[in-house]
Amino acid sequence: MTRSPPPALHSGRPDGRTRLREATRADHERLHRQPAFAALADATLDLPAYRALLARLYGFHATLERLLGERIDADRADWADLRAPRAIWLWRDLRDLDVSEDELARLPLAEPGQLPDLVDEGRLVGCLYVRAGSTLGGRLMAKGLDPLLGPGGENGRRFLSGCGGADAQWRQCCAAIERATDAGRWDAMREGAAVTFTALESWMNGGA
To answer: By residue range, what is the domain housing residue 164?
Structure first.
């Protein structure tokens, strides 16, 4: 019995998601070398450093969510999961780690000008690719937190563990990538992903 080729190869070229992953591989790998993320991947963060990492991520995602909320059409069912909040899970992680609500209220937040300009749907989808993909990649890092937080459980690692429907969000993002590719928005989508990776790296490095 002859096996059918993977769906990505039926048309003779990779699907949009595969193309986007390859096109932004260097940006993705550079972000993984960012010191805080590298230490997280190596399971060498102590608790204060882990809190600082989560706080910085919160500052980025809280502002990004507000911008996405302004750009994602609330009436489109095919975008519903992409509107799901992610910053709330960082907030809950920080509360799990004994960060007070007063301290949370004082955390620095990214300014809109520090985030990608989502001027069209292609760039928007590229940005969503980075956001949705980060929650999936975080699961491996979450397992590396066992020495710090204890084995199992979600407390302190809800964001990295993908709480709040990360799988559904990723599926909807992949569908959006294919639609954007078919609609001729490839260049804008690739640019949106690249500038989002760069914006996140700059923010994590203390960019102001």
So the answer is: 23-204
pTM of the model: 0.90
Give 173-204 pLDDT, tens digit per residue: 999 999 999 999 999 999 999 999 999 999 99
Residue 181: CATH number of its domain = 1.20.910.10
Number of domains in the chain: 1
pLDDT in tens, 13-53: 679 999 999 999 999 999 989 999 999 988 899 999 999 99
SS (H, E, C) the chain: CCCCCCHHHCCCCCCHHHHHHHHCHHHHHHHHCCHHHHHHHCCCCCHHHHHHHHHHHHHHHHHHHHHHHHHCCCCCHHHCHHHCCCHHHHHHHHHHCCCCHHHHHCCCCCCHHHCCCCCCHHHHHHHHHHHHHHHHHHHHHHHCCHHHHCCCCCCCCHHHHCCCCHHHHHHHHHHHHHHHHHCCCHHHHHHHHHHHHHHHHHHHCCCC
Is 14 within the bounds of a domain?
Answer: no
